[in-house]
Amino acid sequence: MKIKKRYGKHGGYLPHCVDRDITRRIKKEEANNPEYYIRVDDQFFIKNEALGSDIYKYFGFLLCGLLLFTTILRFSVGEEINFFSSFLLFLIGILFIFYDYRHPKKELILDRMNGMITFPNYFYFKPFTMPFEDCLVAWSVKNSTAPMLSLLHPNGFTSTDVMGADILEDWCFMNWYMDKNRPLPPGTAFDEYRLQDFERRKAEGFPKPLYPSNIPTPEATKEQQAERKKIGGW
């Protein structure tokens, strides 16, 4: 899946690189909270991007509740009721509720071993899946909110905002994690997988990193670092 490169003409895309340390490190207890993360290990990083999506359900219930209240009130005082407009508003409320329960999962999926990324689309449309190296990202400011990391859709015009509000660090984390030739990013959520990830890279001969970096990304121990330098030369 290729992206039509129109989005970056007003500021460009962020490069695939690891150019800063990760200060907001994912803790093990956070990784076990499905409200934020679905899976965090050495193979998949799956983040729940549906935070705040309950607004559709609540708006639907609110609309139906207000409609019922106003209908009863008008009926009690003998006012004429427009059944067509009432039915239309009721249908809209039901659709909002239905959407909240039935829309595709809003997840950011980083497939580290296969180098693939999956991120949400709008409404009922299927999420996008593409090679991470082909993913184009930029800054996005929508609805007067704080800037967000924005992943461009293949049409070259629309985009999906992901992660948090620290754009550069979030993008750096994604590149660090998706570079399967590097050690896992810092954070206790990855600690139990570091040894098996080290052994995998060792068996592969410690190939050079996929994306450039101007910061060191050392192994978990000095002994492992020395072994990587001896075998891989970096």
Q: Which helices and strands appear, and what pairs or packs with what?
A:
Layout lengths: L27 H4 L5 E4 L3 E5 L5 H23 L6 H20 L4 E5 L4 E4 L8 E4 L5 E4 L7 E5 L6 E4 L4 H12 L15 H10 L18 H11 L2
Antiparallel strand pairs: 1-2, 2-3, 3-4, 4-5, 6-7, 7-8
Give a concise summary.
This protein is an alpha+beta fold. Helices cover 34% and strands 15% of the residues. It has six helices and eight strands; from the N terminus they run H-E-E-H-H-E-E-E-E-E-E-H-H-H.
**Can you list the strand order of the major beta sheet?**
1-2-3-4-5
Distance between the termini: 33 Å
Query: Per the principal axes of the C-alpha atoms, what is the gross shape?
Result: elongated
Query: Structural class given helices, strands, pairing?
Result: alpha+beta
The proportion of strand residues reads 5-15%
Helix content: 25-40%
**Global mean pLDDT:** 84
Q: What is the CA-based Rg, rounded?
A: 23 Å
What number of structural domains do the residues give? 2
Low-pLDDT ranges = 6-10
Number of strands: 8
**Number of helical stretches of at least 4 residues:** 6
Order of helices and strands: HEEHHEEEEEEHHH
Main pleated sheet: 5 strands, antiparallel
